[in-house]
Amino acid sequence: MAKSTKVLEKVGNLKNIISANNNTHIWQFSRVGGVNRVNIETGKDLISLEYLDQKLWTALSCPVYGMEIDSKTLELIDNDNDGRIRVPEILEAVKWVTSLIKDPNDLVKENNGLPLSHINTATQEGRNLLASAKQILTNIGEPDASEISVEETSDTVRIFANTRFNGDGIITEDSTDDTNIKLLINDIISCLGSVTDRNGKEGISIDLINEFYKNCEDYSAWYAKAEVNLKKILPFGDSTAEAFASYTAIKSKMEDFYLRCRLAEFDEDSVGILNSLNAKYEEISSKDLSSCTDEISNFPLTKIEAGKALPLTKGINPAWENALNSFKKLVIDPEFPNKHDLTEAEWKTIGQKFEDYKNWQAEKAGEAVEKLGLSSIRELLAGKTKESLHFLIEQDNALETNTNNIILVDKLARYYRDLYKLLKNYVTFHDFYSSESKAIFQVGSLYIDQRCCDLCIKVSDMNKHNTIAKTSGICLLYCECYSKTKNERMTIVAALTDGDFDNIEVGRNAIFYDRQGEDWDATIIKVIDNPISIRQAFWSPYRKVSRFISTQIEKFASAKDKEVETAATSKIETTTTKVDEGLKNSVETGGTIPAKPAATAPHQAFDIGKFVGIFAALSLALGAIGSVLTSILTGFLSLVWWKMPLAIVGIMLCISGPSMILAWLKLRKRNLAPLLDANGWAINAQATINIAFGNTLTHLATLPENSRLNLIDPFAKKKNPVVPILISLTIILGVAAYLLWHFGFLAKWGIF
Predict the structure, then answer these.
(1) Is 455 found in the same domain as 427?
(2) Looking at the domain assignment, is residue 97 inside a domain?
(3) Do 173 and 143 meet the contact criterion of CB atoms below 8 Å apart?
(4) Which domain holds residue 139?
(5) pLDDT of 436-458, one tens digit each?
(6) What is the CA radius of gyration of the chain?
(7) Global pTM?
């Protein structure tokens, strides 16, 4: 922590370092995503990274979890364990690893394994780490290996499997050859529990050892109090505990009995009630009494009489016979030999005998080790076993430095493998804008509606994320994903950057493939609608109008259908009612049953005023529409022939132009930063997704190269040529008639 604080202080003054021109490194920049981004390509770039102005970094913070990079590596970089990796921690990691590698240029090669020859032995730390790396390889049975991998350095169970001591301050039964010490270690574990050694076995620490012997001392001292006054505290000797248990088991029932007897003495009339068990006997008499022990145990201990002493041999409730016999044998017989009954006064005397024992029990200490027995405990305290255990702990702690170096080898191997990958996605978004690789925040690909969306980001907080992500200008699909193989769930957001939006809606299912190729069931749970492409924007107005017209037609048809259904139902009900009434009247008058008349619609008088109003309204509407169409057609036909296509294009641009312009403006401003900021990043530069780059993030379905396509669809709708011919002839005749009228031929011929 102190080391981290020093780095923070150093980097906090980074602006002054840069302004002082303390570094002469020449940086290379590239224009990527509308921003000048630094190129990190050499070891010198890595070493000089601390002098790069933070304003030129793409990110200033990123989360430790939820990305396609080993989270253990990120945890090691995160010195303050706050779940975020910041610039000072990045610089500390770079400085440490470049000091331990002979040639920092090897770091940019992104090798999985760390060659032992690459470790810098010019420093003592480097020599220690090289020795520890060789020790690891020896422990896992590969002493001749020339490189070491993260998989090998992270397998601590395998590394320390055959070692007695490993520097973690924990010893196991394998840490000694002394049989007695082995047994003692197991006794401590059985009494107080264990801690896990680096080799994966159960062991004990110095804290557990000290706690164990403290319990032993406390228990011995507590028991010594009884030994000073045995007769009072242990009135029944070694059987006192068993005697007290028998006393406790029957205490409430005994006191119930004596209280009932006192009530009977107080009121003689109550004796019958107190002994009235007829109803209870009747309740259980029909049952198997052997299964009614609980009910019988609720009966009085014995028959109630005024001032009666408890009989010890006869007339006892069968459910309490065994408990009473045990109490008699352990307590009554030693205290009152040859007793056949027990008075209430004698019962109270017995209770007083246990008072000192109860108080002593309440003060019990060291109970955790009681099961070992007093003699064993005092034998341990008298011997040198504690010192022997401490000596084993000291032997283990003596290897702490070596063990820490082994752990540092794992850290070095991880940095060697992962640090440059992190820098490419932190200092610059190289992997995101590269066609050869994916960024660490891209968790997989979503397949939906004949498209593959490659920009998929894991969402940690759904509510927070979609609130911030709205400002990105990207069409987003939030999906709930479930993997049957891993039995895990996660939420992702996928960017839709190409294609159409027509079939995208909440509830649709898709398939998500993670970076390991595992498939997840995905369901859309939220959609943020933004422009996808210029092509989509062009057709958007027409689709909206078509959708509106379709909706209105459906509403109109549905309303008319309901209206017709209601009217028909009403007419049928009216006709049926009239027929039933006629039949009823005929029967009552003794006449014959007439045939049912055919249902006819009720006659309505002709309303000339209403008819004229409707006709006038229709005439005005048709006249207005005809006038508009005539004006448009007249204006269009008055154009020179070559201007007519331009007019059509102009009309379409008037309709689609605003939508296309708006889409173009938004597509130019699509920004990845809000998506990452919502996940805990601190993005320091624009991360725009222009149209050209966006098309590479969503792949549309295409037929394979050299494939053959049969265009004959056996299920295609068969075309009727009559209708199109009639429509074409009508249009041609209409245009011809207009031209003949326009140029006066119809007037000349006397037709119009």
Answers:
(1) no
(2) yes
(3) no
(4) 2-161+404-432
(5) 889 999 999 999 999 999 999 99
(6) 47
(7) 0.66
